[in-house]
Amino acid sequence: xxxxxxxxIQALMGQLLLGLINGASYAVLxxxxxxIFGLLNIINFAHGAQxxxxxxxxxxxxxYAGINYWLALLxxxxxxxxxxxxxxxxxxxxxxxxxxxxxxxxxxxxxxxMEGLFRQAYGISGQSYDPPQMLQGGVNLxxxxxxxxxxxxxxxxxxVCLAVWAGxxxxxxxxxxxxxxxxxALVRAxxxxxxxxxxxxxxxxxxxxxxxxxxxxxxxxxxxxxxxNIIIIVFAVVVIGGMGSILGSVLTGFGLGLVEGLTKVFxxxxxxxxxxxxxxxxxxxKPAGLFGRAx
Length: 295
What we know:
- The chain has about 300 residues and is mainly α.
- It has one domain (about 5-285): ABC transporter involved in vitamin B12 uptake, BtuC (Orthogonal Bundle), CATH 1.10.3470.
- The chain has eleven helices and four strands.
- The chain has helices at about 10-40, 45-65, 70-90, 100-120, 150-170, 170-180, 185-190, 195-215, 225-240, 245-265, 275-285, and strands at about 5, 5-10, 140, 145.
- The protein has a two-stranded antiparallel ribbon. A two-stranded antiparallel sheet has the order 3-4.
- Helix 1 packs antiparallel against helix 10 (about 245-265) and helix 2 crosses helix 9.
């Protein structure tokens, strides 16, 4: 049997795959979180609840309407994104001139309300959601067995992250969004509807969280606490990458997923804390994060 530092290669590759899958979830979630903070300066603590809502909406679409996974990948983010638009229009837009703490407290309260509503309706035992037929099973790569759905999650998450980064950094719309954050009065003078841009940004960030939830639905048990279980890690990812850094969040998300997977192989006792240890070290050395810019 082939080993690596005494660890069977199949076990090592299996944990690396698991780390990549976790990293894909971290990357997509932290991408939405960084997008909202970077362009709106709102610390969106409801992001985990929106991730949970995405998974539940996909499950409800299948259970009550017979809508399959592929349509749910489009419909669930749209539903949660529209819900995010309502939140921004009715509540968040009143807080932009106040301290960040008010936005954090409001979104934290909203997260508790959403979790409570789903817990009341469905309990905490969890719901199952099968992957689509064409992505069931797997392929033997010789050194490991690759489940098709898990491979799909990594590929599509990476594609979405790169597409969003390119849209923000390389397009006219992305330039308008960044300009509206820095100088909204000037952008408004050019005839751009700045409130609409801001509302759309928050809705899109919520939709990204829901998209990650749909991807996660066949992998994990769908329950009201799934968002609160992951959001603290995602906040750590965003802090390490640099608050508001789109590219930093993506790279850090995938990277920390791999680090977490390797830790489970060589030192399992530290797997639940390694990300926070890295965060502490990064903040001591570079308080703005790996890709952040100091003010």
